[in-house]
């Protein structure tokens, strides 16, 4: 799918005419809560079914796609990059973080044949409903109060994952507060070194233009997602050197 050179203007150009957008938003208001409850309670009812995780993961992905469609948001990725992701194995996925739309965009655009999961704060597991859903989807609980415990948990989880499954990490740690990429934390590089996995960097463009920090209702427009070439840690370099090299690789694409 070709990308237009007019950049930011294209990102915020509405996908649908205003009447269509209003109809879609009305549908979202009417059925969105029921759909969310179905997705939330499905694990409680079906978690013991054989093959549940694969079925539920596809359900969540389809839900993200429908949400973006109802919001009149298009997510683009080049076909060759989708094909590369579909065949990607034994990796950790690293993504920049611009807005609350990032996770939905990633779920929508990454091919179904590429399995991935996320890390989440361990406090979410205090709720039975969330715990059942998160465990059913294969999310990894992380105790952020202890850096060493978090690293041990991440490393163990990645070691136990099948080669075709990747964990998604946001190296900035939180949504960027500037127009550029934020500083990177070393977690992804450390886990990659410990497990022998490569890193698949992904750069998300313009999601903050559609849903800026502090806003709750996204604009219609286009989000671009780019999958970069595989990044391999250098055992002869320091962690800081690998981290700086990874950030430079993503920055070059982000600022292009």
Automatic annotation (TrEMBL):
Its EC number(s): 2.3.1.51
Listed Pfam families: Acyltransferase
EC category: transferase
SUPFAM superfamilies: Glycerol-3-phosphate (1)-acyltransferase (SSF69593)
Name recorded for this polypeptide: 1-acyl-sn-glycerol-3-phosphate acyltransferase
SMART domains with a match to the protein in the record: PlsC
Phospholipid/glycerol acyltransferase domain span: 91-207
Gene Ontology molecular function terms on file: 1-acylglycerol-3-phosphate O-acyltransferase activity
InterPro entries: Plipid/glycerol_acylTrfase
Annotated metabolic or biological route of this protein: Lipid metabolism
CDD domains per the UniProt record, alphabetical: LPLAT_AGPAT-like (cd07989)
Listed GO biological process terms: phosphatidic acid biosynthetic process
Gene expressing this chain: plsC
Residue spans crossing the bilayer: 26-47
Alphabetic keyword roster: Acyltransferase, Membrane, Transferase, Transmembrane, Transmembrane helix
């Amino acid at each position: 799918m070709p990308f237009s050179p007019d950049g930011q203007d294209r990102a915020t150009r509405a996908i649908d005419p205003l009447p269509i957008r209003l109809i879609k938003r009305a549908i979202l208001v009417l059925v969105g809560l029921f759909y969310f409850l179905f997705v939330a309670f499905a694990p409680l009812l079906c978690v013991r079914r054989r093959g549940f995780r694969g079925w539920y993961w596809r359900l969540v992905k389809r839900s993200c796609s429908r949400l973006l469609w109802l919001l009149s948001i298009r997510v683009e990725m080049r076909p060759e990059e989708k094909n590369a992701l579909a065949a990607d194995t034994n990796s950790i996925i690293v993504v920049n973080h611009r807005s609350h739309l990032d996770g939905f965009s990633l779920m929508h655009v990454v091919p179904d044949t590429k399995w991935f999961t996320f890390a989440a704060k361990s406090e979410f597991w205090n709720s039975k409903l969330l715990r059942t859903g998160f465990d059913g989807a294969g999310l990894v609980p992380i105790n952020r109060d202890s850096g060493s415990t978090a690293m041990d948990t991440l490393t163990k989880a990645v070691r136990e994952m099948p080669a075709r499954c990747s964990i998604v990490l946001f190296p900035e740690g939180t949504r960027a507060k500037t127009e550029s990429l934020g500083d990177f934390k070393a977690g992804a590089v450390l886990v990659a070194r410990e497990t022998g996995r490569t890193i698949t960097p992904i750069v998300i463009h313009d999601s903050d233009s559609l849903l800026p920090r502090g806003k709750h209702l996204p604009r219609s427009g286009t989000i671009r997602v780019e999958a970069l070439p595989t990044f391999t840690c250098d055992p002869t370099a320091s962690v800081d050197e690998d981290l700086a090299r990874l950030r430079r690789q993503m920055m070059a694409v982000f600022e292009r």
